[in-house]
Every structure is written in structure tokens, then in C-alpha cells.
Amino acid sequence: MQACRFQLHYPQPLLKYPPTAPPATKDGGLLFRRKLLYLQSLNINPHKALTINPSLCSTPLSSLLSVERSLCSVGLSRPSIGRILDMCPLLLTSDPLPPINFLLHEVPLPFPHLPLSLTRCPRLLISSVATQLRPTLHFLKSLGLVVNSHSTLLLVSNVEHTLKPKLNFLRYLGFDEPEVNRMVVRSPGLLTLSVENNMRPKVEFFLEETEGDLEELKRFPQYFSFSLEKKIKSRHRALVEHGFKLPLSKMLRVSDGEFNARVIEMQLQRVHKR
């Protein structure tokens, strides 16, 4: 009898497509948490950043990393980038390259000076080149001012409402336009001061208390940059008590120790003359 032979046919395993992951939400909880951790890694206050810039909620982490890379490429350290972004959270969803190119090619600012300018004034990075930075640069150049890393913060000022009132105040005092322009070139910080809270009180003290001459302000416009209460009044009082008088530059430019030594020296000279 011939044995029956059975041939077993094993079914081929069914090929299954890998399960398709459900489409990721625009900004799911996990992704949002990653963004918060990223902000914290830069020492950025997430609550402050989201309050000032609500669009951060829907901005992908890759965009934030791109902003960091752009800032890193101009020589800013990661701690500096964190400070800048914490001060100016709107930059997290902005393109910093147009203002950077403007600073490098139109101001123009030497590349090594760029980090200092951006650290001093992060608002440069979110200012419109066409409507803010370029018109203000043209105005400052018309005064004869050469913009450098210490004065680039003036580029974010409004020409009509911030810069011109200071120039008009100096003209009101009796300085003509060329004189005002020369004062600004010698002391660009004049354009950062408040007329009512800074310039006017100092002029009134200078004219009324010290009986000074406006010509001296023309020669030493840096007078406006010194504290009225902490330095100008106290040093003037010390000179008056001893019957002395000094030019503004010699009274204010030196340290407290040098000023006191100068007063003592003047006292000794008076004694020797007797």
C-alpha cells in the first residue's frame, strides 16, 4: 500500500504596512513643553515671553532654533542671546537678518562691533529697516554724526517725537543750528536725554545757581550726562564753600578722589600765596 503523503502548505505571512502615526497637532502638549524647556535653557522667562509675544504658542521649535543660530553667527554668546531674547521676546518670531545686514552694510558697522551694539539695544533687531532704521540713520548723518557701536541705539528713536525736540530745546537756549550739531557730534548722549526731566533742570541750575555762561555748555556738552543731584550740585557746593570756581570739565570729568585732591591743592595754593 502506498503511503499517503500530505504536503503541508504554510500560508505566507501577511505583509502589513507600518501603522501610520496620527498627524501631529500644530502644537501638541509635548511640543509645547519642549519649547518651554528650550526658553528656560536660555534663561528666558516663558510667562513673560508668551504674554508679550502670544504667537510663540504656534511657532515651531525649529523657528526658535533658527533665530538662535542667526544671532550666534554674528558672534553673540549663548548667554548674551538669552538676555537679548528675554529683553525682547518679539524677536523670537522675527527675522533678525535684515536689521543685521543693515547695520553691517549701510551704517556700516565693523563686524566685531556688532555684538556690542545688539547687546546694548536689542530693539534694533525688531525694527523695520525701511520705516525706522534707514530714515533715522539719514537724519543722524545730516547732523554730522558718525554712528558707531555706542550710538546705534539712537537708530530706534523716533525722529519727530524723540530726537528733534532735544535739538529744538538747545536752539531755544540760543545756540544756532551748526552749534547744536557740533554739540551732538561731541556728545551723542544728548539725544538720549529727556528734555523735561534732565536737560531743562540742569540748564536752570547752571544759569541760575552757578551763574554760568552758555558758551561753556557749548564747549562741554557732556555736562548734561552727569547726575544733577549726585555730582553737579554736590561738587558746585564744595567749591562755593571754599570760594573756588572751576570750569565744568575740570569740575565733573574727574573721580571723587581726584576732585577732593584738587580742592585741597587749591586750598594749599591759597595759603602759600598769603
Can you walk me through this structure?
This protein is mostly helical. Among the domains are: 68 residues, no CATH class; 47 residues, no CATH class. The protein is 56% helix and 0% strand. The chain contains 14 helices and no strands. The chain is elongated. The chain starts with 28 loop residues before the first helix and ends with a helix. The N terminus is likely disordered.
Task: List descriptors.
274 residues; mainly alpha; MTERF; transcription termination; MYB105 protein
Task: Give the structure's gist in a few sentences.
Belongs to the mTERF family. With 274 residues, the protein is an all-alpha fold.
Please give the structural blueprint.
Blueprint: H1 29-41, H2 46-52, H3 61-72, H4 78-87, H5 97-105, H6 114-120, H7 129-142, H8 159-172, H9 177-186, H10 195-209, H11 214-219, H12 228-241, H13 248-252, H14 256-273
Computed structural class: mainly alpha
Q: What integer value in Å does the Rg equal?
A: 32 Å
How much of the residues is beta strand, in percent? Answer: under 5%
Query: H/E series, N to C?
Result: HHHHHHHHHHHHHH
Tertiary shape:
elongated
Total beta strand runs: 0
Gap from first CA to last CA: 152 Å
Helix content: 55-70%
